[in-house]
Amino acid sequence: MKTFLNLGLCLGLCLFALLAGCGPKSTSTDPAADGAPEKPRVALIMKSLANEFFSTMAKGAEQHQAEHSDQYTLVVNGIKDERDLSRQVSLVEEMVASGVDAIVIAPADSKALVPALRRAKQAGIVVINIDNQLDQDILQQEDVVIPFVGPDNLAGAKKVGDHLAKALEGSSNKVAILEGIRTSFNAQQRLLGFQAAMDEAGITIVDSQSAEWEMSKANTIASSMLSEHPDIAAILAANDSMALGAVAAVKTAGRSGEVKIVGFDNITAIQTAIREGKVLATADQHGDQLAVFGIEAALQEIKGEPVSENVETPVDLVTSQTLSTP
């Protein structure tokens, strides 16, 4: 009998040890228990990576993460073209599902992305808006506050427009504007900046159309503008891709050197065009640092340190005088 009792006791102790061994172990599921807390994951969601401005933005963010690899990990995303809103919304939802700690986003549309970003914030994710500011009325309707980290696009466009106005003194006072996507706040602000500069100088805007940030569409529209208004003295493009489209249109029309062109973004190709005299000026909003500014704000919020609702970043006029020799 004693033998059976001892055997039963041994079996019982073994079973208890086995069950205890199957229980959760904090050391395997909680990195902090090993003195190595898990680094926050930051998702960068941009517009079209086919646009050099955003590929430059991505490289700047990746370089920053490499230099601060002990502080956070980075997930970089972009969409096929500027109008692919549904894909950008899907990217936000995918990042929420993957459990990132923060989303830094350059929205393709100032209104359409707000509901998805509200859901991200409700899931406990830090959200920082860069480049293109979200619509304040929609943010209020959705009862959500999302900090904006980026340049004053109106002021930047005004600087470019003022420089053009000085260059046009004594020539035709008629110009045309190539706008960005009209539902984007940065497109609206750049248009207002261009308009303000032209109004102050007494220069007439004879045509203003949206080329949706795209070079090929800008080429087509600019060609039509030049045909309909042969006395146009300049074209103001709300980004450099559209400015390059205008350069091609001016060349095709046989008016190279006659029609002045300005842009916005300071991509590599536009710097070359400025040096060659094909483009008069552009605005540099420091694309390689813009995402970095947003990432740093996100990391600040993750630490529990509040970020201002509007953090203004630099935007500078770029001309042949300001460009260094390559």
From TrEMBL:
Location (main, coarse): other
Pfam families, sorted: Peripla_BP_4
GO molecular-function terms, A-Z: carbohydrate binding
Localization: Cell envelope
Periplasmic binding protein domain span: 42-305
Signal peptide (residue range): 1-20
Family: Belongs to the bacterial solute-binding protein 2 family.
Gene Ontology cellular-component annotations: outer membrane-bounded periplasmic space
Keyword field: Signal
Database matches in InterPro entries: Bact_Solute-Bind_Prot2 (IPR050555), Peripla_BP_I (IPR028082), SBP_2_dom (IPR025997)
Protein name (database record): D-ribose-binding periplasmic protein
